[in-house]
Amino acid sequence: MPTGSRFLVPVGDVLRHLGRTRAVHIETPVDWSIEQFTVLPQPPLGADIDLTAVPGGIVVRGPVEVVVRATCGRCLRQWDEARVVDVSQLAETVDEGDDGYVLDGDLLDLEPILRDEVLLGLPLVARCDPPCSQLGEGAETRLNAAAPEARSDTPFAALQDLCDAGD
Q1: Residue 2 to residues 15, 34, 110, 162, Cα–Cα distance (Å)
Q2: How many domains, in total, are found in the chain?
Q3: Model pTM score
Q4: How much is the average pLDDT of 101-110?
Q5: Domain ranges, residue 100
Q6: Element (H, E) at 51
Q7: CA dihedral of 116, 119, 122, 124, whole degrees rounded to 10
Q8: Is 158 helix (H, G, I), strand (E, B) or coil?
Q9: For residue range 66-77, what is the model confidence (pLDDT) as tens digits?
């Protein structure tokens, strides 16, 4: 666990009393990205986290506010948008080997928890809103246009007639 982490929180006082809750505020720039999204360093990530002692660990809960730069998967247009992700995870006192989050003695590194929750809270694919109005001008390239009429000189025209007959 990195000793200079901005996300490192001492939690010994919370661990010693089941049910005790302590609020933690974090405000720091981050450099996280996944596929078509990048969490911008400015404005910095803001998190108001409650740490609650439970048997076996500490529950980490609270909203995380970030601004992400998204890149549309169709037209590659970029835009920035604010997002709020609600975090709810358990940091265990003993490593159970299940790829969970584990405390390092009386220290909790919130970075992996917050990073995973923020990045996994993003959509799989970024899309423009309204959808990609900048794509091509021809009916064949505009995704927002109706499909062009089928040409009868293609080998698939007979299949189209069969499909139309079923309606």
Answers
A1: 21, 22, 11, 66
A2: 1
A3: 0.74
A4: 92
A5: 1-167
A6: strand 45-54
A7: -100
A8: helix
A9: 999 999 988 888
